[in-house]
Each structure stands twice: as C-alpha cells, then as structure tokens.
Design goal:
Blueprint: H1 2-13, E1 40-51, E2 63-65, E3 71-74, H2 87-105, E4 111-113, H3 122-133, H4 144-157, E5 161-174, E6 177-188, E7 193-206
Parallel strand pairs: 2-4, 2-5, 3-5
Antiparallel strand pairs: 1-7, 5-6, 6-7
Length: 221
Amino acid sequence: MRLIKLTLISLILASCSPGPHVGRETPPCDDCRSGQAPDFEIKINRVYNETKENLTLDSGFLIGVLPALNVVAKSPEKCSYCHSFSEDAIEFDFAAKEDSILAAKFPNNQRVLLFPGSRIPEKDSAEFWSAFAKLREIPLTENKELKEFFKKLSLRHKTRYLAFASYIEVTIKDKKTFDWESEWSLWDAHKGELLIWDYRNVTAKSKNSAPVDRGWAAVLQ
C-alpha cells in the first residue's frame, strides 16, 4: 500500500500548481439540471481507504480545512451544458461535501477554513508549497517536513486537526457521464499522525435526463 500511495501521489502532484482557475462564460442551457438533486449511478474503478481503528477526535478541537492543492477540470471542447463547470466550481462543490462529511463523522469538532477564498497568504506561500512538494518523493506518513509544517500551521491557527485534498480531477465524458478522481486526508497535526487517507477513482452516470452540469462531489460517500 505504501508503494501505491507513493506512486499515486507522485503522479498526482507532479503537475501541482497554485495557478489561477479559469471558468466558463457560456450562458445556461435550456436542458440543464435546473435545481434537480444529483442522482448518480456509481462505478468504482479504484478505491483505497485507510482509517485509524476506532477513530474519534478529541471533543472541542477545531478541524482546520486547507484548500485543495490541485484541481483539474476536463470537458468536451463543444459542451453546451458545461457552463457551470470549472476548477473553482469543482473545488466549491468538494468543499461543501467535505464539510458535510466531517460534520457527520465528527459532530463535536467545528470546521474552520484556514485560508478563505483558497488563497495562500504571500508570507506563507513559499513554505506551504515547499512542504507539499515533498509529497512527490516521500509518502505522507514518512514526510517529516510536512509533519513539522502541519504542527506549525495548527499552532498558528489554533487548530488540532487538518483536512485537505491533495488532488481532484473531474472529466466530463458526455452529457450524462463523468470520471471523478481524488485523494483526501485528515491529520492530527499536533501528533503528526495520519488519521484518514482516501483515494478514489470512480465513473458516475446520471440516472435522470438532466446533464452532469453540477453536484460532482455527490459521488463521495
């Protein structure tokens, strides 16, 4: 499993960049979902999940949520129903789902977004990206620099736990189908301990006639 992690993370973060996200300006189409709740049939391609046995978080401690490190949005060149599809939209959609998952699993721990607007402060930027760049070479659980950075970050922001997505990629295949790939983890930053590691690669197909123009993170359970 360690080799799998290293390989996945190396491939995933090799293209990691804090560059700007670009959205679409196309006006809404007549046959888009129009408020319908996502209802997808999920095909699991690859899923790996490691969760600390009997995991509970100390009550009252904050969960600091970091922005996704790398978000990729891919869609057909000509796509009338992709007007709401962008890296920003995917990250927003994921953040809402992540918040609901954390709230359900750990109701006694408040979540707080460390960097509002997903913008890393300039004074923290170099250290932030330097710490995460090492994921290309060193597995999460063995990365001492990352653990030290997490501890410093948690003390600075008065949080005990940290959650972040290393990578999210959504590829719209056609009007009713898209691929979702992501890696997400939860840490006890004070102890430098990995609590949850989740990687998933799935294909989702809309069960209704509306196109897959939003709600992509609904594939996460």
